[in-house]
Amino acid sequence: xxxxxxxxxxxxxxxxxxxxxxxxxxxxxxxxxxxxxxxxxxxxxxxxxxxxxxxxxxxxxxxxxxxxxxxxxxxxxxxxxxxxxxxxxxxxxxxxxxxxxxxxxxxxxxxxxxxxxxxxxxxxxxxxxxxxxxxxxxxxxxxxxxxxxxxxxxxxxxxxxxxxxxxxxxxxxxxxxxxxxxxxxxxxxxxxxxxxxxxxxxxxxxxxxxxxxxxxxxxxxxxxxxxxxxxxxxxxxxxxxxxxxxxxxxxxxxxxxxxxxxxxxxxxxxxxxxxxxxxxxxxxxxxxxxxxxxxxxxxxxxxxxxxxxxxxxxxxxxxxxxxxxxxxxxxxxxxxxxxxxxxxxxxxxxxxxxxxxxxxxxxxxxxxxxxxxxxxxxxxxxxxxxxxxxxxxxxxxxxxxxxxxxxxxxxxxxxxxxx
Length: 419
Description:
By secondary structure, this protein is an alpha/beta fold.
């Protein structure tokens, strides 16, 4: 139990350091690391975690020059990373940040590194100009992405890779999807305006907020009037566009944003699958908030004998597992957890899923293949392989959306099965 005040910067730094250390040891933020922090302190901790992980390449570079030898106490090293991030983003509060970081260090490794934390952070402040000058000559530190990742982007997008990197290093925008079954978009935009929240219309049901806010500030969120969803992700339901009465499969459904959007657009008979029961419960919770219903089943969608009753589907959404290379600003741990060989591993799993799901599409039906990746091996190359192997498949639409300030990065390919 921490002795630090719950609302103190020291408490936030300490907990952010522990989460960063867990991520750098191989855990994912998706494992619920932030959920272990007291609710009142969670927003401050999340800001530090996400910011420091986005800028990990930069912080790691600084520490390599500020420490005379590697620091084996991983949580203390993570505390330095988090504190440096805070010093760079809040330079006017430098004295307070150092003081609070030293207080946080008192609760790690029996307090043996308090003096080290104090000295390293004060040296950082003294040497900041020199360190920033050296940073300009280190590609990984400057881009804040792993070297192999940069090589992939530079090879695939020789003109666009700097913009992709820049987008990945920014905090994401906050976009909403209005539940058109319960509220018109213009009507909801007026509700936002009445609360002092400015927004811009995007897509057929989306609104982009000028500034992110907690969901409890969104009018009618608990009542299901609106969901948080990136505009790029909203394209999935718009592209698949199943007709009312259609039999629809969402094969990799959690957490349920695309499932809900499909149900908001039309009255369809929808089955949602996901691998784990816990993930299916998340889908169920999201649908319940929105007043929507679907069949739910925990199953591996590639193993048809475990879930398919033999009746074909008119429309299939295959939002397959991927490297998440198009959404790293929302998942900053992915940059440092992924390895180059993971691309081939994901591509093999995607091929297995795509080949299996094609069997459940009725003749004349459609399948939408989706990733939140920008790596071609998971996207255009995957579809190229599939079309060679499946002569019954016709490509209706293919689009690689690169991340930018308005939306995340996605790949879409709409396939139709010939009669």
